[in-house]
Design goal:
By secondary structure, the chain is of the alpha+beta class. Helices cover 20% and strands 22% of the residues. A hairpin with a 7-residue loop joins strand 2 and strand 3. The structure holds adenosine monophosphate (AMP).
Length: 114
């Protein structure tokens, strides 16, 4: 999707600090990190929001979480802990409309989130 920022990153038309890539997923460092570690894990397929997921995406979403687990281990935060977040639509805090999993770590997380 030409108008989608994250599709452009998938297509390597816009640069990103990529740390992991496979046939279905891409992971890169967030450009405006909210924690010492802030990685975005995205499907290569364009899916706008959580509301657009279909049952056929079940395995893909599982792969995204397993990818986050792998990256957390690679970055050495699996034991101390980390947070995974998917924002949905405006009130959920979503600003880029290509579904993405935030992996946040390297500092104490707080609850409730803002
Ligand atoms: P959300 O608000 O949940 O949609 O998250 C979108 C995230 O994308 C934000 O944390 C932004 O900082 C991040 N972001 C926006 N543009 C880029 C970019 N070009 N490269 C990496 N991360 C980006």
């Amino acid at each position: 999707m030409d108008s989608c920022l994250f599709c452009q990153i998938v297509a390597k038309k816009i640069p990103a600090a990529i740390i992991d890539e496979d046939a279905h997923l891409l992971a890169f460092h967030d450009i405006a990190p909210q924690a010492p570690i802030h990685v975005l894990i995205i499907p290569k397929e364009h899916i706008s929001t959580l509301n657009d997921l279909e049952p056929t995406h079940t395995e893909l979403m599982g792969k995204m979480i397993m990818k986050a687990q792998k990256i957390a281990a690679k970055l050495g935060i699996q034991e101390k802990g980390y947070r995974l977040t998917i924002n949905c639509n405006r009130q959920g805090g979503q600003s880029v409309f290509h579904i993405h999993l935030h992996l946040l770590g390297g500092r104490q997380m707080h609850w409730p989130p803002g």
